[in-house]
């Protein structure tokens, strides 16, 4: 897919911005643990683009993340499978339509995220948090610094 200047950034949540969440034996979800560089990347990108979240998580996890002091007020809209029952691709399409986005870009951490972006027909950036990965199908990054630099280059095109 040809990458052009984005008008918005859509993030996956679990595995992309925050580490996979643990649920204890009483069913309580542990607090969000953000990946290194995630808060700084979100803050930096929020100064340039409207930000959104589309995740397959439980609504409680999404609400806990959005309530973090460092994340509060940075995202314009969000949705998750737990709220809608729709596929991630359908939820991405819903966010795009609801917010009249023309050229959003999605940042995720899984092949499922990539497949969802194919359904929504938008570009995908793959973050692997330090793990070495090679893929001919989409730009791949090991940290948020690389992602932000790449998006800044797209922005200047």
Which tags fit this structure?
35% helix; alpha/beta; single chain
Alpha carbon gap, first and last residue: 16 Å
Would you count the extended β strands for me?
6
- Based on secondary structure, the structural category is alpha/beta
Radius of gyration: 15 Å
CATH level-two architecture: 3-Layer(aba) Sandwich
Structure overview:
The protein is α/β, with parallel strands linked by helices and 157 residues long. It has one domain (8-18, 32-143): HAD superfamily/HAD-like (Rossmann fold). 35% of the residues lie in helices and 17% in strands. It is built from six helices and six strands, in the order E-H-E-H-E-H-H-E-H-E-E-H. It has a six-stranded parallel beta sheet with strand order 3-2-1-4-5-6, sandwiched between helices. The protein is globular. It starts with 7 loop residues before the first strand and ends with a helix. The relative contact order is 0.20.
Describe, in short, the structure shown.
The chain has 157 residues and is of the alpha/beta class. It has helices at 38-46, 59-66, 81-84, 88-98, 111-120, 144-156, and strands at 8-11, 51-55, 75-80, 104-108, 124-127, 140-141. It has a 6-stranded parallel sheet with strand order 3-2-1-4-5-6, sandwiched between helices.
């Amino acid at each position: 897919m040809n990458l052009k200047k984005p008008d918005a950034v859509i993030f996956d949540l679990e595995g992309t911005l925050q580490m996979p969440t643990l649920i204890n034996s009483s069913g309580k979800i542990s607090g969000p643990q953000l990946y290194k560089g995630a808060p700084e990347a979100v803050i930096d990108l929020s100064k340039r683009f409207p930000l959104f979240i589309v995740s397959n998580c439980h609504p409680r996890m999404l609400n806990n993340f959005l309530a973090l002091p460092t994340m509060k007020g940075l995202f314009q809209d969000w949705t998750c499978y737990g709220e809608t029952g729709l596929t991630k691709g359908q939820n991405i399409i819903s966010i795009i339509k609801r917010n009249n986005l023309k050229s959003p870009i999605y940042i995720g951490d899984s092949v499922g995220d990539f497949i969802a972006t194919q359904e929504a027909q938008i570009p995908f950036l793959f973050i692997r948090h330090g793990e070495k990965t090679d893929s001919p199908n989409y730009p791949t990054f090991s940290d948020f610094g690389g992602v932000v630099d790449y998006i800044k280059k797209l922005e200047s095109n």
